[in-house]
Design a protein that fits this description.
Helices cover 33% and strands 23% of the residues. Helix 6 (180-195) crosses helix 7 and helix 7 runs antiparallel to helix 9 (260-271). With 287 residues, it is of the alpha+beta class. Strand 5 and strand 6 (114-117) form a beta hairpin. The chain has helices at residues 2-18, 21-24, 31-36, 154-169, 171-174, 180-195, 209-221, 236-241, 260-271; strands at 40-49, 54-56, 66-80, 87-92, 107-111, 114-117, 124-131, 138-139, 146-148, 201-206, 278-282. It folds into two domains: 24-163, OB fold (Dihydrolipoamide Acetyltransferase, E2P); 171-282, no CATH class.
Length: 287
């Protein structure tokens, strides 16, 4: 009986480990969240792949370096953070013993919950990029941070990225917009941007007081009753909790969860002028 159970368990494990990786991937984040957490957002074409890979530690504190293939991408449209850039170097890891077909799909499954992003020469992409902590290049952190032009949703997703990037590029203008939803979208992206801890960012510092005030007021004025337009879409309540408030900030979560929106709006109105939103930053090296 025990051997039979082990055989059944082994079979289930085999099925789990040989199932298509894409089925086990996390769902794509909405475009506004991708924009909020990116250093650079561009639409471009891969001009070439550099012949010599770059060997660099994947994370600060890592013991072993990893080889990155570098794709040189000609920027056709800089949506965010690329105002003075004509090209951007994008690094990706080519797995051992896996043939590099060129051109090919942007995403190559490697195993459960793992997707390796591969860029191919002469192919066009929308890219949501993060500066590598150690190397002089950018990377796409998640599989959904690369959208190939042959994707049927490419034009729509680029249009969304363009809209949200414009809001966050001029935050003080967007936070004063007459459109309540534009103000909320801007506030939501800024909170996600400031409160998402990236590699190497351990310290925190307050953002400018006026910007903090406008963000909190925009969150207060948002429609807390609206239903999410898509899965994982940012809601006022979700964004509010990203502030990371504690008891010493004057926030005590009500036991009745239905009272959270009302109590959160009270807190936002009372604290807009005195609570400084904190953002994660890289720790300064000691002298």
């Amino acid at each position: 009986m025990r051997l039979k159970k082990l055989a059944i368990l082994s079979g289930l494990l085999l099925v789990a480990t040989t199932a298509p990786a894409r089925a086990l991937m996390i769902a794509p984040a909405p475009i506004n969240q991708r924009v909020a957490t990116s250093d650079v957002v561009v639409v471009g074409k891969v001009l070439r792949l550099e012949e010599k890979p770059v060997s660099v530690k994947p994370l600060p504190g890592a013991t072993m370096p990893v080889e990155y293939t570098i794709a040189v991408v000609q920027i056709q449209e800089g949506l965010l953070g690329a105002e003075k850039m004509k090209e951007v170097r994008v690094g990706f890891i080519v797995p051992k013993n896996v043939p590099n077909v060129n051109p090919g799909p942007a995403i190559r499954p490697l195993g459960p919950r793992v997707a390796n992003i591969q860029l191919a020469k002469d192919q066009e992409y929308a890219l949501f990029l993060t500066k590598h902590a150690e190397g002089d290049f950018y990377t796409a952190v998640n599989y959904f941070d690369v959208i190939q032009k042959n994707n049927p949703n490419f034009a729509n997703e680029v249009a969304q990225a363009r809209k949200h990037a414009k809001l966050i590029a001029e935050p003080m203008v967007s936070l004063k917009s007459k459109d309540v939803n534009d103000r909320f979208q801007t506030a939501a992206m800024l909170i996600i941007r400031y409160r998402t801890q990236k590699v190497g960012n351990q310290a925190q510092e307050p953002i400018p007081a006026e910007e903090s005030k406008l963000i909190l007021l925009a969150l207060h004025d948002a429609d807390w009753t609206a239903k999410p337009s898509e899965p994982f879409a940012l809601t006022p309540q979700m964004v509010f909790f990203r502030l990371g408030l504690k008891n010493e900030d004057g926030w005590v979560q009500p036991r009745d969860l239905k009272q959270i929106p009302e109590e959160a709006k009270k807190w936002l109105k009372a604290n807009a002028e005195r609570y400084p939103i904190q953002r994660f930053v890289a720790e300064k090296a000691s002298k």
